[in-house]
Write a structure and sequence with these properties.
3 helices, 80 residues, globular, mainly alpha
């Protein structure tokens, strides 16, 4: 699914393992390498793997992602 979404929405794929501590409780910078390593493995899957989804159907999932993104961006505008 990750590879499919990256290609569909032209998302950047550069990973930054040495980000400074962001001040979010429970997120430790030393855990970032492990997380990014796992994400890279998901990115290695073929975008055709999306055809084998068993938990979600693609169309409703894409609709949800679009609405969630729109709602998030609208919320961000409220704090400007």
């Amino acid at each position: 699914m990750n590879r499919y979404l990256v290609e569909k929405y032209q998302l950047p794929t550069e990973l930054y393992p040495h980000l400074p501590q962001n001040g979010i409780e429970g997120i430790h910078s030393e855990d970032m390498n492990g997380l990014l390593s796992m994400l890279k493995k998901f990115m290695d899957l073929s975008p055709c793997a999306v055809e084998e989804l068993t938990v979600f159907e693609l169309s409703p999932l894409l609709e949800f992602l679009g609405k969630a993104t729109s709602d998030f961006l609208t919320g961000q505008e409220l704090f400007r």
